[in-house]
Structure formats: structure tokens, C-alpha cells
Design a protein that fits this description.
Layout: H1 3-16, H2 37-40, H3 47-61, E1 64-68, H4 73-83, E2 87-91, H5 95-99, H6 102-112, E3 117-121, H7 128-136, E4 140-143, E5 147-149, E6 154-159, E7 173-179, E8 183-184, H8 187-198, E9 208-212, E10 217-218, E11 226-227, E12 234-240
Parallel strand pairs: 1-12, 2-3, 2-4, 4-7, 5-8, 7-12
Antiparallel strand pairs: 5-6, 6-9, 10-11
């Protein structure tokens, strides 16, 4: 933009703001940041109240949720899969899969369910194309988000070699396994935790982080609501009650 067009553009903004001058102001007062309600809103809520808020927002945005404990996680995931009609399931190679022996559980289930449910594990060793191809024709994708946001029933899902973005994007149904002690009240606390998590080693920051707030839905064309336009139509959060925090700030 040359200087003449720049001045013309700024003059238009000045008039819209009710300013007399046609040029860019010579001085702009610093904004007063002394009042920050986002820092204190919901700060007095305890973990149970935060979880209640999260579940209430799930109901508002059309997201199913089930509660479980670590020792029953496997059977709860299988029940959630069955609840959405079974089919082909894709799951990641994240540490949680090994921790709860989910791969072994899925292999055993595949051998005994008569083809009702089939499984594919996202594995970088198989190559990007194979992973995406199998995920694109999967019915259900399973992920393990970093944390949740109670105010909007949002899960914070990182993408990387072990768990590609396609898992939570391409299948018709998304099952997200979320630890209840990682649910924050608002976006403010969530961003603080992420900053702290990667402060000492920015190189570990994932390729991207998606904020997922329930089933995909849009109404930006003539205010007509369309489900599944940009992602899964159906979402279930598996809320795992755990007294030990899952955050790792090292």
C-alpha cells in the first residue's frame, strides 16, 4: 500500500470513529490493562464445579459424555463405540494406548466380534498416506486431548506423529478421552498451562493444536444449520476421573 492509499484508508477509519483529523493520530494513549476480568472469572470454582460446568455445556452443544475410572477405561471406550453403531475405528499411538493396553484390547475384540468392529492404529512408521487413507474411511476416531475448557465444553487436541489431526477430523464420530483433573474453567487458564508446558522446550510444541467444541456445525450460509460440514457429526467425551494431575510442565 503506497502512502496516498494508506492516508486515504486511515482517513476513512478516522471519520468512522468520529475524529476530526483526516490523518493518523500523532499520539495514542496506552490501553489501561489494570482491569483484567478474564484473570479472575471462575477462579473460586472447585474441581467438582468446573466439571459440572463442562457437562452442562456439553449438553448445550450436543456432545455426549460418559464418566469412568482408569481401571474401566477400556470397556467404557468399547461401549461408546457400540453406542455409535460400531464400524471401523482408528486410534493413535500415544502413551495412553500403551498405559491402558488398548491395542491389545482392540486386537482381542476384533478377533471375537465377528467383524462388527475393526481397528487401525495411526502409526508414523506406516507412512502418512496409509494413515490418512485408513482414517478417511474410518467411522470412529479416538484421541486423548491435553485438557478441556469448561466454559465452552472444549477439548484441546494436539496433533503430531503419534496422533494425526485427521483422527479427530475425518471420521464421522469422534471419541475424546479426557481426564477430569485437566479441565480448566476458561481459555485464559488453558493458554497459561500450555505456555508453561512448552516454555522450557519450545521444540516440543506440536505441529498444531485444535480446539474442538462438540460436533461440527455451521450456519454461516443463510443461517441454515448444517452438521458435519467441517468435521465429525457425532462426539462423545469419555471423562476419566483421576486424582493425579496429567499436566507435565517439564
Amino acid at each position: 500500500m503506497d502512502e496516498a492509499k494508506r492516508k486515504q484508508f486511515i482517513a476513512r477509519l478516522s471519520r468512522a470513529l468520529g475524529r476530526d483529523q483526516e490523518m493518523c493520530p500523532a499520539f495514542v494513549e496506552d490501553f489501561d490493562y489494570s482491569h483484567g476480568p478474564q484473570e479472575t472469572m471462575f477462579k473460586d470454582l472447585n474441581k467438582d464445579q468446573i466439571l459440572t460446568m463442562f457437562k452442562e455445556q456439553c449438553q448445550r452443544v450436543g456432545t455426549k459424555f460418559v464418566e469412568t475410572t482408569p481401571d474401566k477405561l477400556g470397556e467404557t471406550i468399547l461401549a461408546a463405540i457400540e453406542d455409535w453403531g460400531n464400524g471401523k475405528v482408528v486410534f493413535p499411538s500415544t502413551p495412553e494406548v500403551d498405559e491402558y493396553k488398548l491395542k491389545e484390547l482392540f486386537e482381542q475384540d476384533a478377533a471375537n466380534n465377528g467383524g462388527t468392529r475393526t481397528y487401525f492404529q495411526w502409526d508414523p512408521a506406516k507412512g502418512r498416506e496409509e494413515c490418512i487413507s485408513n482414517t478417511a474411511n474410518a467411522d470412529i476416531g479416538i484421541t486423548f486431548p491435553y485438557c478441556g475448557i469448561a466454559e465452552t465444553a472444549t477439548v484441546v487436541q494436539a496433533s503430531g506423529e503419534e496422533s494425526g489431526r485427521a483422527i479427530s477430523l475425518l471420521p464421522t464420530t469422534h471419541i475424546a478421552v479426557l481426564y477430569t483433573d485437566t479441565i480448566n474453567p476458561r481459555m485464559t487458564q488453558t493458554m497459561e498451562h500450555l505456555a508453561e508446558r512448552y516454555h522450557n522446550d519450545p521444540s516440543k510444541f506440536p505441529t498444531n493444536i485444535c480446539l474442538i467444541s462438540g460436533p461440527s456445525r455451521t450456519a454461516d450460509i443463510e443461517l441454515v444449520t448444517v452438521d458435519g460440514a467441517h468435521g465429525p457429526i457425532q462426539v462423545t467425551y469419555v471423562l476419566v476421573k483421576n486424582t493425579l494431575t496429567r499436566y507435565s510442565y517439564n
